[in-house]
Amino acid sequence: MITKTQNSSLWNAFRGGDRDSFQRIYQLYVKELLSYGHKITSDVQLIEDSIHDLFIELWQSRTNLSETDSIKFYLFRSLRNKISHRHRRDVLYRASDVAHFIESLDEFSFEKQLIEHEGQEQLLRQLKKSFQLLSPRQQQALDLRFAQHFSNEEIAQIMGINYQSACKFIYSGLKVLREAVRIFCWGLAYLTITC
Q1: Which residues form the RNA polymerase sigma factor 70 region 4 type domain (predicted)?
Q2: How confident is the model at residue 111, as a pLDDT?
Q3: What angle, 0 to 180 degrees and rounded to 10, lies between the N-to-C axes of helices 163-194 and 152-159?
Q4: CATH fit for domain 4-87, picks 1.10.10.10, 1.10.1740.10, 1.10.260.40, 3.40.50.620
Q5: Quick one: CATH architecture of 98-194?
Q6: CA 132, CA 160: separation in Å to the nearest integer?
């Protein structure tokens, strides 16, 4: 991960026409862009074409681009807009990389506590099942927040919604997942007591 200062320097060098900086930006973010693209659509060809077009347009318009201290944020927002425009409508598809999201749940303290217990596999299955029941926008908001580490303000901009809606998607998604964990823990405690 690069610092904000390094981010700005790299971006400004690219804007000045430095091909090595452009290549470095591509190398740093292409895998994350591919992963993020899968949260928006399952159409692999559309994702790859959109990323390709994004980088071509970046290079062609580099002198007109404004400064940024978060290249990742700029690229994520641009990719989302590009995919949405290619669809000609704002439709989000169900995330296909649920396993990646489940791995990112280690930030929740309830998971850290439960992983130490023998019900780990059952919990992960329950979380995965509960995650799949979330709306596509809840899934995307949670992925952006906990797997990609964007702020709520950045999530709102990337998803093209207002700040309150972004917070609502995150809060409501977490509420569903927490309830699934609570029910699981209650069931596990019940089984432990009755066995």
Answers
A1: 126-166
A2: 44
A3: 110
A4: 1.10.1740.10
A5: Orthogonal Bundle (1.10)
A6: 22
